[in-house]
Write a structure and sequence with these properties.
The chain has helices at 2-16, 20-27, 39-49, 66-85, 99-103, 106-112, 138-148, 194-215, 262-267, 291-300, 329-345, 360-369, 380-384, 406-432, 439-447, 460-470; strands at residues 53-55, 62-64, 89-90, 96-97, 118-122, 125-133, 157-166, 181-191, 221-224, 236-244, 249-260, 270-272, 278-280, 282-289, 317-321, 350-352, 374-378, 387-392, 398-402, 433-435, 451-456, 478-483, 504-511. It has 512 residues and is α+β, with helices and mostly antiparallel strands. Bound molecules: ligand 87F. This is proline--tRNA ligase.
C-alpha cells in the first residue's frame, strides 16, 4: 500500500526526530498546548485552529465560523422538528427591552441587573430613555402573553424563538462557555394547569438529554436544581449536567424551568376557565445555547485538536489523495472523486481535499485539528487493490476497506465512532464520580477534582455554608443537581455538611 505507507513514513520520520516539534516545523500545523497540562490555553488554541472561533476585538465576543454554525444547525434541525411535533411554534420578539417592563420583574432581575447591557445613545445624542438589550426574553414576551391570553381556548400558548442574547459578564470569558453574546433557543409556554406544565418540563429536558447524549456523545445527568441554584423567578428548575474530567468542573448543559404562576402574577396573565372563573396561567421556560458546543470541545478534544462526533460533523469523511512519485496520479484523483460520489450519494457528508499546494501530511494534520471523524487515504497501492485506507480520528485506528464494501463499512465505522466517543466519555465521567458521606471525604474528593454525590439535608443555609467553606482560588463548590435517578437513601443517613437528617442525594462540585 504505497500511498498509505507514504503517509505513515512521513509521520514516522516526524515522530523519530523530536516528535511534535518536527511535525510543527514540517507542516506549520499542530496544537502546541497539551490538554492535561494547560487546559485553558489548549482550549483556546483548539477552537481557533479548528476554525470554529475567531477572537474579536471586544472581550467576551467571538466570531462563530462556518465549522461552528454547521454543528449548531444540525442540533437546531433536530430540536426544531421535535418541538414542532409538540405543537410549539416559532416566533421572533425584539432585541430591545424598555426599562419599565424590565423592572417589572424586579425581585429576581435584581441579581442579574449588573449584566444587563443598555443602549444610551443614537449617534451623538443621548436617548431620552435608555433601552436594554435582552438578556433573556421573559419581560419582552409576557406583556403580550397577557394580551393574547383571554380564555381557556387561548391555552396552551407555546412559543419558541431562536435568537441571540447579551449578558455583560465580568468573570473570565471563554468561547462558547461564557460569552457576552450567545445564540440559543428560548421556549416560553403557558398552560391552564400545573400538570400540563410539569409534563412539558420533562419532555423538553429529555430533548436536551438527547442533544447531549445522542448528538454530542456526552453523558449528562438529569435532575432538579437546589433552591439556591434554581432560576429565582421560577417555581423549580430542572437541568442536564455535564462534567469536564480534565478540569474537574461540572457544567450546566441546559435548563427547563417550571415558572409556576410567579410571572402570571407580575404580568397579569389571566384567563377565564371552563367554569367562567378568572384563573392564572402556569408557565414554563427552557433554553439550550451554543454552550453545548464548548462542552463538546472540552470533553472530546485531544492533543491533536477537535474531535467531532459524526452526528454533528459537517464533514464526516475527508478523502485525501496520496500521490507518489511516478504513480498514476490521475487514477488516484479519480478514485478519490468516485469515493466522494459514492459516499455522498449514500447520504454521508464527505469532501475531498484536492489542493495541490499542501502535502498529504499537512492535510492529515489539518483535518485532524478540525476533528473530522474519518479520513480516507487513497494511494497507488490502494488503487491497484481497489481499496481505501480509513483512519479514525477518535482512536487513530487504521482499517483497509474494499471499494466494494465502502458504503456499509463507512456507515458502520461512523456509528462505531459515535458510540465509542460516548462510551469513552461516560467511562471517564463515571471514574470522576465519588460518593461521600462526611465533610472530610467531601473536601478530599473536591481536591481530587471529583463530581461528588452526597446525602444532603436540602437546606439553603447549608448550601450557602458549603459555598463559604470551600471558597478559594479555584472557585467555591456548589450543588449541581439532585438526580432524578436517586440511589437508595437508608433511614438515618445524615447530611454530609450539616449532620442533620439527609433528604436526598445531590451532586456537588466546582462548575463553569
Ligand atoms: C442575566 C441578566 C438578566 C439569567 C440573566 O434559563 C436576566 C437574567 O433572567 C435572567 N441571566 N437569567 C435567567 C434566565 C431564565 C430563563 N429564561 C428563558 C432560562 C431559559 C430561557
Amino acid at each position: 500500500m504505497a500511498g498509505s505507507s507514504e503517509g505513515k513514513k512521513s509521520n514516522a520520520k516526524a515522530n523519530i526526530g523530536g516528535k511534535k516539534k518536527e511535525v510543527k516545523k514540517e507542516t506549520g500545523l499542530g496544537i502546541s498546548n497539551k490538554k492535561d497540562e494547560n487546559f485553558g490555553e489548549w482550549y483556546s488554541e483548539v477552537v481557533v485552529s479548528g476554525e470554529m472561533i475567531e477572537y474579536y476585538d471586544i472581550s467576551g465576543c467571538y466570531i462563530l465560523r462556518p465549522w461552528t454554525m454547521s454543528i449548531w444547525e444540525i442540533m437546531q434541525t433536530f430540536f426544531d422538528a421535535a418541538i414542532k411535533k409538540m405543537k410549539i411554534k416559532n416566533c421572533y420578539f425584539p432585541l430591545f427591552v424598555s426599562p419599565g417592563v424590565l423592572e417589572r420583574e424586579k425581585d429576581h432581575i435584581e441579581g442579574f441587573a449588573p449584566e444587563v447591557a443598555w443602549v444610551t445613545k443614537s449617534g451623538k445624542s443621548e436617548l431620552e430613555v435608555p433601552i436594554a438589550i435582552r438578556p433573556t426574553s421573559e419581560t419582552v414576551m409576557y406583556p403580550y402573553y397577557s394580551k393574547w391570553i383571554r380564555g381557556h381556548r387561548d391555552l396552551p400558548l407555546k412559543l419558541n424563538q431562536w435568537c441571540n442574547v447579551v449578558r455583560w459578564e465580568f468573570s473570565n470569558p471563554t468561547p462558547f462557555i461564557r460569552s457576552r453574546e450567545f445564540l440559543w433557543q428560548e421556549g416560553h409556554t403557558a398552560f391552564a394547569t400545573k400538570a400540563e406544565a410539569d409534563t412539558e418540563v420533562l419532555e423538553i429536558l429529555e430533548l436536551y438529554r438527547r442533544i447531549y447524549e445522542e448528538f454530542l456523545a456526552i453523558p449528562v445527568i438529569k435532575g432538579k436544581k437546589s433552591e439556591l441554584e434554581k432560576f429565582a423567578g421560577g417555581h423549580y428548575t430542572t437541568s442536564v449536567e455535564a462534567f469536564i474530567p480534565t478540569t474537574g468542573r461540572g457544567v450546566q448543559g441546559a435548563t427547563s424551568h417550571c415558572l409556576g404562576q410567579n410571572f402570571a402574577k407580575m404580568f397579569e396573565i389571566n384567563f377565564e376557565n371552563e367554569k367562567g372563573e378568572k384563573a392564572m396561567v402556569w408557565q414554563n421556560s427552557w433554553a439550550y445555547s451554543t454552550r453545548t458546543i464548548g462542552v463538546m470541545v472540552m470533553v472530546h478534544g485531544d492533543d491533536k485538536g477537535l474531535v467531532l462526533p459524526p452526528k454533528v460533523a459537517s464533514v464526516q469523511v475527508i478523502v485525501i489523495p496520496v500521490p507518489y512519485k511516478d504513480a498514476d496520479t490521475q487514477g488516484i484523483f479519480d478514485a478519490c472523486a468516485a469515493t466522494v460520489n459514492t459516499l455522498s450519494e449514500a447520504g454521508f457528508r464527505v469532501e475531498a481535499d484536492f489542493r495541490d499546494n499542501y502535502s498529504p501530511g499537512w492535510k492529515y494534520s489539518h483535518w485532524e485539528m478540525k476533528g473530522v471523524p474519518l479520513r480516507i487515504e487513497i494511494g497507488p497501492k490502494d488503487l491497484a487493490n481497489s481499496q481505501v485506507r480509513v483512519v479514525r480520528r477518535d482512536n487513530s485506528a487504521k482499517i483497509d476497506i474494499s471499494m466494494a464494501n465502502l458504503v456499509e463499512q463507512v456507515e458502520e465505522l461512523l456509528a462505531n465512532v459515535q458510540q465509542s466517543l460516548f462510551d469513552v466519555a461516560k467511562q471517564k465521567r463515571d471514574a470522576c464520580i465519588q460518593i461521600v458521606k462526611t465533610w472530610d471525604e467531601f473536601v478530599e474528593a473536591l481536591g481530587q477534582k471529583k463530581m461528588i454525590l452526597a446525602p444532603w439535608c436540602d437546606e439553603e443555609e447549608v448550601e450557602k455554608d458549603v459555598k463559604a467553606r470551600t471558597k478559594g482560588e479555584m472557585g467555591a463548590a456548589k450543588s449541581l443537581c439532585s438526580p432524578f435517578d436517586q440511589p437508595e437513601l437508608p433511614e438515618g443517613t445524615i447530611c454530609f455538611a450539616s449532620g442533620k437528617p439527609a433528604r436526598k442525594w445531590t451532586y456537588w462540585g466546582r462548575s463553569y
